[in-house]
Every structure is written in structure tokens, then in C-alpha cells.
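Progress against Task 2.4 (sequence-to-structure conversion) is shown through the following example record, which the project officer requested during the mid-term review.
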Amino acid sequence: MSPSPHRSPGPLALRCAGRPVARYTVRPELARTAAPRPYLHPVTTLAGTPVTESRPADHPHHLGVGVAVPDVAGRNFWGGRTFVRGRGPTELDNHGVQRHQSFKLRDPDGFVQEIAWAADGEILLRERRTVAAVELTDTAWALDFTFSLTNATGGELTIGSPATNGRPDAAYGGFFWRAPKAAAPPGVFTPEADGEEAAHASPAKWLALAGDGWTLVFAGATAETRRDPWFVRAAAYPGVGSSLASADRLPVAAGDTVVRRVVTVVADGTLDRGEAAALVRKAVTA
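C-alpha cells generated for the chain above:
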């Protein structure tokens, strides 16, 4: 039986194929400048290889796998500095927090969670987050991650990014996965492109990040999610996200909901393009 959704939760262990594959921190104890939020870390392959990083020295506000947005009606739910047009990255007292409200479902292989996005004493967004671990093969599993953001303000709000605020090639904000940094940067490829530069800021059915002994394949699992371009970093640090606001701010009318679903294949070893595509097909239809 699932625990009561109203019980104060500690970290959750997510299991797949009888093995622990992720730890979910529900109420992190972090400085407000980190934009505290629930996140998954560590996430591992079925063989136990870590494929996430949290609070690294290069970006201490990067927290494993989760949803982070640098501009929700001018509030920072990403952490760190805010990019201000004409000023660049700027320290502002504008950070929000994602507060756990309840679990609607809580099982060993997944959960459904209600989260309030609050800043300055006001709830801006209410989120329903659905996460599931799905076995694919004896060397690969999938993290199925859906988030639904509902405007709770009573008026229209807009979601932006550093790119919409004037910083080129920086349309981060939405689902984001920070991978571990190694001596050599991971490989990047999509069905049609090879390399970080070719894959960054472009929509693609899926995008692969291949490190030392592991491969992550990120797939938009709805038509709307697939329209969002990928934000990719490999050389500076390894991270992949799906951009909610790339060229323009995303308006959300009062009471309206934005829904995105990203399914990530977590595989041991280095996959080629054909293997990645086959696992994505299996993961998205599983």
C-alpha cells in the first residue's frame, strides 16, 4: 500500500527491474538562491553507473533531474544569477521555490506529486508531476517524466529564458538533466545530427548524450514536447534540457496548463544511432 499522501516525506527510492535506480529528494534543504525544488539524484544505469550530478562546483544550482525555469513572470526558479537585458547575469533577490504539497500516488517504480511554485508569498504555478521507471532490456530502462504547469495567479503570466531576455543560445528552462562531468566531454547525436553545435537549439525527435560507459537518450513523448528545441551542453559541462521558451516568451492564460513529457532512456554502454532509435521506440510505447 502506498504511504499517505499527507505524510511528511523523506527521500524516495525509485526502483526498476528489482534494483534501485534513482533517489528523489522531495524537500531539499538549500539556500533560496539555489531555487529549492524536488529533484532526482543520483540516477544510475541498471549496472549502477551514476548518470546525474547535483550541486557541482561549476553550477551549484544544478540539481540532477527536475524542472527548473529561470523566468516565471520575472521570478527565478532555476537558481543562481538572472540574465537581465543590457546588464547580463545579475544577482537579484527574485528566487522562487517549488514546494511539495502531496503525493497522489507513491509506488516503488513511480509517483504522482502535487507541487506549488511560489515566490514573494504568491503561488504562481501549480504543478502535477508524474514520474515512472520502466524496464526496457537487461541493460536499459526509461525515466518517464511528465509535468503539468497550471497558472494559479488569476491573470496571464509568461515564461521566459535568458534567450528571450537577450542572451544568445541560452534558451534553457523546463525539464533539465545535469550529467556527470568527466575528463572528456560526452558525445552528442540526434537522428539527423552529430555534435553539440549541430544538435543545440534545434528540435529533434530524440537526442543522445553518450558518456564513459553510459548513454542517455532524451525523447519528446508528445507532439508539443517535440516542437521544443533542445538545450545541449557537452564541452563546458554535460547537460540537456527541453526549452519551454526559445525565441519568444511562452504565455500562459489564467487557469491554463502547459504540459510536457520527456522519456529518457538510461543505458549501460555506448549506443549507436540505430540502437538509440530502437530503445526510444520501445520506451515511448511501453
